[in-house]
Design goal:
Elements lengths: L1 H22 E4 L3 E7 L2 E6 L2 E4 L5 E3 L13 E3 L3 E11 L5 E12 L2 H6 L4 H17 L4 H6 L1 H15 L5 E12 L2 H82 L5 H18 L6 E4 L2 H22 L25 E4 L1
Helix pairs in contact: 3-5
Length: 349
C-alpha cells in the first residue's frame, strides 16, 4: 500500500511540473507570441514571462518560406529576403537576369499571421511581379543606368501592397542586372565606339581651343606691333618736327648774324640763295656718272657776287680785329667782275 501511495505521489508531482512548465511562457526581446484559446485568437504576448492556461491556451505556429517549420515566436526586427536571379523582359524585348534584396519589418503581428498564410513567400512573389512590371516599362539602357529609380518604384509598390499584411517594406535593392552574352558583347563594342568618339571630340575641342588661343595671341601681337609702329612714327614725327624747328631756329640765327655782318651792305637772302645754288652745283659735280650741266648766263653774276661777299666779310673781319692782336694782312687785290658769258653752254664730263 505504501508503494502505491509513493508511485501516486511521484505521478502527481510530474503532472504538476508539466502543468507549471506549460503554464509559464518566456518571450524574448523584440519578439511576440500570438496566443489562441481553444483555437480562437486570445491576444499577443510581448517580451517577458507570461502565465497561460495549459491545454487551453496555445501559441499559434506559422510556416513561412525561409523560416523554421512551425515557428511560434514572431520577430519584430527588420529582416531581409534574398531573391534569386529572375528573368525580366525589358521594353525593347531584351531578357535580363535581375538579382535583388528586399528589406521588410513586421508592424502588426495579428495581420502577419492571419491575413496571409505565407508571409515571406508572398513578399517574394510580390517583389518578382512588381520588378517585372517596373522594368518592363524601361528599355535596356535605362534599366542599366536607373537603378535608383527602379528601387524607389519597387519600394512604393511593395509598401502599398504589403500594408494589409502588417508589413513595412523599408527598401528594395537591385544588386545585379545581367544581360545576355550577345547583348553584352554588343554593348562593349558600343561603349568602345562611344569612348573613341568622345576622345576624337575632346581632341578636336582641344585643337579648336589651341587654334583660338593662337589666333588671339597673334591678334594681340599684331595689335602690339601696330601700337609700337604708331608710337614709333609719332616719336619719329616729333623728332623730325623738333629737328626742323631747331634747324629753322639755327637758320634764323645764321640769317641774323649774316645781316649783322653785312651791316646793310647787301641782302642776306641773296647770300643764302647763292649758297644753296653753289651746294647744288657741288653735289652735281661730285657724281661719278657722265652728265650734261647747263650753266646759265647768271652763273657769272653769281660768282662775282661770291667774290663781293668774300671781300665784304674780309673787310668786316679786319675792322673787328682787337688792337692787341697782330695787324691784318694786306687785302687781296680787287677782283673784277666776270663779263657776261654768251648763251648757255654744254659742258661734257
Amino acid at each position: 500500500m505504501e508503494g502505491f501511495l509513493l508511485l501516486f505521489g511521484i505521478f502527481i508531482t510530474i503532472v504538476v511540473l508539466i502543468f507549471l512548465a506549460s503554464a509559464v511562457r518566456i518571450v524574448p526581446q523584440m519578439q511576440v507570441l500570438v496566443l489562441e484559446r481553444l483555437g480562437k485568437y486570445a491576444g499577443i504576448l510581448g517580451s517577458g514571462p507570461h502565465l497561460i492556461v495549459p491545454f487551453i491556451d496555445a501559441p499559434r505556429s506559422v510556416t513561412w518560406t525561409g523560416f523554421p517549420f512551425g515557428m511560434k515566436y514572431i520577430d519584430l526586427r527588420e529582416q531581409y529576403t534574398d531573391l534569386p536571379m529572375q528573368p525580366v523582359i525589358t521594353k525593347d524585348n531584351v531578357t535580363v537576369g535581375v538579382d535583388s534584396v528586399i528589406y521588410w519589418q513586421i508592424t502588426d503581428p495579428y495581420k502577419a499571421v492571419y491575413e496571409v498564410s505565407d508571409l515571406s513567400g508572398g513578399i517574394i512573389q510580390l517583389t518578382i511581379t512588381a520588378m517585372r512590371s517596373v522594368m518592363g516599362e524601361m528599355d535596356l539602357d535605362e534599366t542599366l543606368s536607373s537603378r535608383d529609380v527602379i528601387n524607389s518604384k519597387l519600394r512604393m509598390v511593395m509598401d502599398g501592397a504589403t500594408n494589409k499584411w502588417g508589413v513595412k517594406v523599408t527598401r528594395v535593392e537591385v544588386r545585379n542586372i545581367n544581360p545576355p552574352e550577345d547583348v553584352r558583347v554588343t554593348m562593349e563594342k558600343q561603349m568602345t565606339a562611344e569612348r573613341n568618339r568622345r576622345a576624337l571630340v575632346l581632341q578636336a575641342e582641344g585643337e579648336k581651343q589651341a587654334a583660338i588661343t593662337r589666333a588671339e595671341g597673334e591678334r594681340e601681337a599684331a595689335i602690339a606691333r601696330a601700337e609700337g609702329e604708331r608710337q614709333m612714327q609719332i616719336l619719329r614725327a616729333d623728332g623730325a618736327a623738333q629737328a626742323r624747328l631747331r634747324a629753322a631756329d639755327a637758320e634764323a640765327k645764321s640769317i641774323q648774324m649774316i645781316a649783322q655782318s653785312l651791316a646793310g651792305a647787301g641782302n642776306p637772302a641773296h647770300y643764302l640763295i647763292m649758297g644753296r645754288y653753289i651746294e647744288s652745283l657741288r653735289d652735281m659735280a661730285q657724281s661719278q656718272n657722265s652728265k650734261v650741266v647747263f650753266m646759265p648766263v647768271e652763273a657769272s653774276n653769281v660768282l662775282s657776287s661770291v667774290g663781293m661777299f668774300k671781300e665784304m666779310f674780309t673787310d668786316n673781319t679786319a675792322n673787328a680785329t682787337p688792337p692787341n692782336q697782330l695787324p691784318p694782312q694786306a687785302p687781296a687785290p680787287a677782283r673784277t667782275a666776270i663779263p657776261t658769258s654768251p648763251p648757255p653752254q654744254y659742258v661734257q664730263r
